[in-house]
Amino acid sequence: MSQIPLEIVTPRLRVRGLRPTDRPAWIDALARSLPLHAPFMPLAEPGVDLAMRFDRQLAAHEAGTSFKGVALAADGRIAAFVNLNEIVRSATMGATAGWSVHIDFAGQGVMTEALTALLDLAFAPEGLALHRVSAGIMPENLASLRVAEKAGFRREGFALKLVKIAGEWRDHVLVAKLAEEHGQRQ
Ligand SMILES: CC(C)(COP(=O)(O)OP(=O)(O)OC[C@H]1O[C@@H](n2cnc3c(N)ncnc32)[C@H](O)[C@@H]1OP(=O)(O)O)[C@@H](O)C(=O)NCCC(=O)NCCS
Predict the structure, then answer these.
(1) Pocket test for ligand 1, best of 119, 141, 144 (most atoms within 8 A of CB)
(2) Which residue, 19, 92, 117, 161, is most buried by CB atoms nearer than 10 A?
(3) Which domains does the chain have, with CATH numbers?
């Protein structure tokens, strides 16, 4: 699959796929946001630093197996990170979404705006034309549950010990949204 050349502009943001030139800003943004992200995301892998993580994400994005995106503020700063992982284009036409906000932009509605744009891009026929986007959220992550709710995700279930975060297997609430629930005809 080739890279997905997509971009969505919202009132405050420009959401687009990673580019090689994002490397320094991406590393800096994640490093600064680590205190916010670490309790809720699988970050620490032994021997893998942020530069290596960027290179992996860019490679996955360029291979088209994932959409690894950034939401840029009007001044070009990275305001949020949005991903569609494990894109399946056969029978299920689905992907798993991941999201996090830059610590400097937290609590301003930016995350909801960026995630909604990601869903636009996921479901649009001229975008990824997906049928379903799923996500998993720790039950303690009330802000993320609320962001998912505001972006129109439905709760579908509960997965025990789904993801290892900070060394512990953590339960996750499973949520999903279908293209038709995002107002997209199929
Ligand atoms: C989860 C996260 C993305 C939310 O970012 P954000 O900038 O606060 O998101 P928004 O401002 O768009 O919306 C947050 C919503 O959650 C609500 N909220 C925040 N903290 C809350 C809490 N403790 N309890 C209940 N609701 C809460 C806010 O009030 C807001 O809802 P509202 O618009 O109805 O008032 C951010 O905290 C983050 O990056 N966390 C670490 C990484 C992470 O958890 N990623 C998601 C993994 S599933």
Answers:
(1) 144
(2) 117
(3) 7-131 (3.40.630.30)
